[in-house]
Amino acid sequence: MKKIILSGLTATLMMSASSVAYAVDLTIESWRNDDLAIWQDTILPAFHASHPDINVTFAPTAPAQYNAALNAKLEGGTAGDLITCRPFDSALDLYNKGQLAKLNGLPALDNFSDVAKSAWTTDDGSATFCVPMAAVIHGFIYNKDAFKELGLSEPETQAEFTAVLDAIKEDGNYIPMSMGTMDQWEAAAMGYQNIGPMYWKGEEGRLAIINGTAKLTDPEWVKPFEVLAQWGQYLGDGFEAQAYPDSQTLFTLGRAAIYPAGSWEITGFNNDADFELGAFRPPLPNAGDKCYINDHTDIAMGLNPASENAEAAKTFLDWMGTEEFAQLYSNALPGFFSLSKHAISLDDPLANEFISWRAECDSTIRSAAQILTRGGTPNLWSGMWTASANVINGTQTPSEAAAGLQSGLESWYEPQQK
Amino acid sequence: MQNREEALKRKKRPFRWHILIFLAPAAIIYTIVMILPLAETLRLSFFYVDSTTREVSFVGLKNYLELFFNPYWIGPFLNALWNNTYFFIIHMLVQNPIGIMIAALLSMYHLPGKKFYRTAIFMPTLLSFVIVGFVWKLMLSPLWGVSKGLLESVGLGSWFMPFLGREETALTTLAFISVWQFIGIPMMLIYAALLSIPEEIIEAAECDGVTGFSQFFKIKLILILPTIGIISILTFVGNFNAFDLVYTTQGPLAGPNFSTDLLGTILYRTFYGQQTQPGDPNMGAAIATMMFLIILLGISIYLFFIQRKITRYEM
Predict the structure, then answer these.
(1) Which candidate in A154, A362, B75, B77 could, as Cys together with A280 as Cys, close a disulfide (CB 3.0–4.6 Å)?
(2) Closest Cα in chain B, distance from residue A93 (Å)
(3) Is residue A376 exposed (0-12), middle (13-18) or buried (19+ Cβ within 10 Å)?
């Protein structure tokens, strides 16, 4: 008994002694409680190795409670020094309320492109308030064994893509593509926003809508809907009542050959599928076109202006812009890709395939994510869910769907009213 | 003399505090959990919060005018109102008649397994919406569901379709699921009402040669009409407040293409927001107030025009 108490005491003493050795303590607020082990075992030890004078603790909250809990902590003055930022308006709100510090001039920010920073920059571009961490990339994951069996190769263009789908359908052993329209968002995120950037030319098209120089009824915005309208015939029987988890299961069971995807599926598919997985990027409208991918910004890190250790926190944020962090983070979480400009190599072949597209294509984000979903009714992003699902179901024509979205946007968004 | 009389009078009418004291618990609890929230909802609907500056301002009826005259509000609202009415009609046409029929069968003297049926039919009512929604979604799933196989086994395979995924069938399917879940309630109430019909009346009817179906329609049904009225009101209020089943099976966007959108789901989307759409508690409160008024109107129509015409018989 005595021994236990003694050893307990020694342990406590040692622990307090070791924390005395650190000059500064930092706490990270985050909603990624799934990543706790990754931060504790991989990322933070690497930082501590190079910065022994700073001790960082990763203190996540459950995702659903994060926004509310963080607000309460920020207002009560008990929030951590570093704050994980959600993209767009929710982080912007915090900045406007003075609860995120302006980070302009932080050297780390130079390692990120403007697209990467767009989710955490004010509308006029004057202030950036979070260091981008990761994005998810859209594309198609396919069953390599099935492709080998049917003698198919990865399609490059839309024509080849259709040919591949037709070949799988004709063979009849596999469902050509696993997607359902029951949950609607798959149709928008993995359908419209996946293939769309190729047509509306990524950032160029997205900004044109924001500036009001283009309309959602313009051909480059209607064309992806026309492509989606063809998808219905290649989906499984009863796809109208197929939900998101159904689609995942259908693919990992090996019953479907192609899965319109986001890179966040990589870890799950690696675990569940017992066939070889491959990935190809969204098809080009025509051979030789410039290619654009949807590289959607998802997570970043900001600084609490009330932090007493702002200098140490900035040191940490700067470290987050290094190649070392990018490498560690992207490998620990395959499918969540660092947004930095460094060329990173990944161990996971599927994740490597996804990230390789960044070198070949221009990145853009989901077209309805920034500004266009602000405050107005009807909400453009929800509208895209319904419109994309309707087009695939065949209950709305592509031009009707586009017209509906455009008139909804025009009803409240001034730049589009001209 | 006079003084004594006055004194007596005063003594006769002391303030009867016990009435207030006995009423207080119910009145206080009811005020806290019902009246205050209602008043607060009404108050909330007269305000507007600026999304960027967080400034709260009194705007009077602006939220209501927006709801009625902005096509992007009134369109979905009317759609939800119609869907809700349809949902109610299905319940009135299917749930209540079948409930009455089952109750009539259960109240027969010699029905073997009566207790089992009564319990089994009432059981789904006790289940959570989440379980009911999930189980039915799974059964109706075109991929793993049993419904396709069941239909095929009786030669009706061609009748199968993704019932929850088609605009034409989704709402009707959901209404039937809801009927399946709640049929126990009219059944139980009617069953209790049927049991309370005195033996003498039935015996007298039998002496007069009124038996079987005509006994049910000419005597029993008339006697349980007040209960049927109560059931209709319960169904009406329950249906116009429905939300959970649609939310668990079709998600907050009440797909496909808003064909299953009820007043409850439109209120939820508006009040709490959805994905990138921020919640708008003030507009949500305006919709909630409209729902309250619609239900109030329905109940008033029932009370003033229908209930008065129902004759009650002493039994």
Answers:
(1) A154
(2) 7
(3) middle
- What pLDDT, in 10s, does the model give residues A243-273? 999 999 999 999 999 999 999 999 889 989 9
| Residues in contact with A392: Cβ distance below 8 Å, sequence separation at least 6, in sequence order | A179, A181, A187, A191, A228, A229, A231, A232, A235, A239
Neighbouring-strand partners of residue A295:
A137
CATH code for the domain in which residue B95 is found: 1.10.3720.10
* Residue B248: half-sphere exposure toward Cβ, Cα within 13 Å: 18
d(CA B293, CA A334): 53
Of the partner residues A185, A240, A379, the one whose CB lies closest to the CB of residue B162: A240
For residue B290, being part of any structural domain is answered with yes
% of chain B surpassing 90 pLDDT: 70
- Predicted confidence band at B9 (pLDDT cuts at 50, 70, 90)? low
For A:325-384, CB contacts with B below 8 A are 368-369, 373-375, 377-379, 381-382
Please tell me the number of Cα atoms within 13 Å of A202 on its side-chain side.
18
**Which of A241, A374, A396 is facing B162, going by the closest CB pair?**
A241
Looking at the 3D structure of chain B, how many domains does it have?
1
pLDDT tens-digit map of B137-184: 999 999 888 988 899 999 988 888 899 999 999 999 999 999 999 999
> Helices (DSSP H) in A151-239: which residue ranges?
158-171, 185-186, 193-195, 197-200, 202-211, 219-231
Q: Report the chain A residue with the minimal C-alpha distance to residue B144.
A: A246
Is A88 within 8 Å of B276 when comparing Cβ atoms?
yes
Q: B127 CA to chain A: closest CA distance, Å? A: 23
B204 in a structural domain: yes
**Rounded distance between C-alpha atoms, residue B39 and residue B23, angstroms:** 21
Which residue range is the domain that position B255 belongs to?
Answer: 70-309
| A-B C-beta contacts closer than 8 Å | 105
pLDDT (average), residues A406-418: 90
pLDDT in the model for residue A11: 47
Q: Can you tell me which residue has the tokens 């015939």?
A: A233
Domains and CATH numbers, chain A: 2-135+298-352 (3.40.190.10), 137-294+366-416 (3.40.190.10)
CA distance, residue B93 to nearest chain A CA (Å) = 26
Condensed to tens digits (0 to 9), the pLDDT of residues B175-232 reads: 999 999 999 999 999 999 999 999 899 899 999 998 888 999 999 999 999 999 999 9
- From chain A, the residues in CB contact with B177 under 8 A are none
Q: Is A180 on the interface with B (CB under 8 A)?
A: yes
Q: Which residue has the higher pLDDT, A7 or B294?
A: B294
